[in-house]
Write a structure and sequence with these properties.
CATH architecture: 2-Layer Sandwich
Number of helices: 11
Strand content: 15-25%
Largest sheet: 9 strands, antiparallel
Helix content: 40-55%
Structural class: alpha+beta
CATH topology: Alpha-Beta Plaits
Order of helices and strands: HHEHHEEHHEHEHHEEHEEH
Length: 261
């Protein structure tokens, strides 16, 4: 290749990066910022998939990977294995973007693949991340506790959809803040081992909230939930779970390899 050709390749590469061509979306920013849409799509693999020969499943897996790559500049997708821990579903994807249509476009393409056509979409939850609502009114010592570093790279994930009763929404803000302080006090002992992310779903789903947890210690998570069931705020949970998803965080390639066996 001549010098001019090399220069042309370099210039094109710089322009592509500058224009966002082929660039992946900033995952860490999407997971941190408010105003980001999250979609949890839960799937069970149909019987027909397992009747396909190995080569056909391998081809379908390769097609699926291309869909993930195609949308990588608009959405970030985390994959989680439920197989072996749930009889209702086998895996779920957690999709984030700044525009809900990006989530939908990814899922339409994914469900249109050979693999997607053999999946049953058992549940879908939608929500948006927001700035903290009650924490600004908490005591300073509790705010300090909430700065405790959350665990990173935890293997277990738990998703708990929540719906409140009408009395919760009719309650004055200061009364809700007091209850949420009691709720938060019950979580402090587990901040080092349980990481939580909250999505607001009212008007976007039949739910009010989606709570997503990561932890290396399921015993701590069990104790955390037991504690939260004993605070006054829990009286206003019209739905807690149903379904509750328990799985493990797995890379896409690992999940697809499992499905291609």
């Amino acid at each position: 290749m001549g010098n001019r050709s090399v220069l042309a390749v370099i210039v094109f590469g710089v322009l592509a990066v500058a224009q966002g061509v082929g660039a992946e979306v900033d995952r860490e920013k999407l997971l941190k910022d408010p105003g980001v849409y999250g979609t949890f799509a839960v799937f069970k693999v149909g019987d027909h998939w397992w009747q396909m020969d190995h080569d056909a499943r391998a081809d379908a897996v390769a097609e699926t990977k291309k869909v993930f790559q195609k949308h990588a500049d608009k959405v970030t997708v985390d994959t989680h294995l439920l197989w072996g821990l749930s009889e209702k579903a086998d895996f779920f994807v957690r999709v984030h973007s700044k525009d809900m249509m990006n989530n939908q476009n990814f899922l339409v393409d994914f469900m249109g693949t050979k693999l997607g056509k053999d999946l049953k979409n058992t549940d879908t939850f939608n929500g948006i991340t927001k700035a903290l609502n009650y924490v600004p009114n908490f005591p300073e010592d509790l705010k300090g506790e909430l700065k405790t570093s959350a665990p990173q790279g935890s293997p277990y994930v738990v998703v708990v959809p929540i719906r409140k009763d009408a009395d919760w929404w009719l309650m004055p803000q200061d009364a809700r803040t007091a209850m949420m302080k009691e709720h938060t006090d019950a979580t402090v002992a587990y901040l080092k081992t349980v990481k939580r992310k909250l999505y607001h779903s009212s008007g976007l789903d039949d739910l009010d909230f989606i709570t997503y947890f990561e932890t290396p210690k399921l015993d701590d998570f069990n104790n955390l939930v037991t504690g939260l069931l004993m605070v006054k705020e829990n009286r206003h949970n019209k739905q807690f779970g149903d379904p509750l998803l328990l799985g493990t965080a797995r890379p896409l390639d690992e999940i697809l390899d499992i499905l291609a066996r």
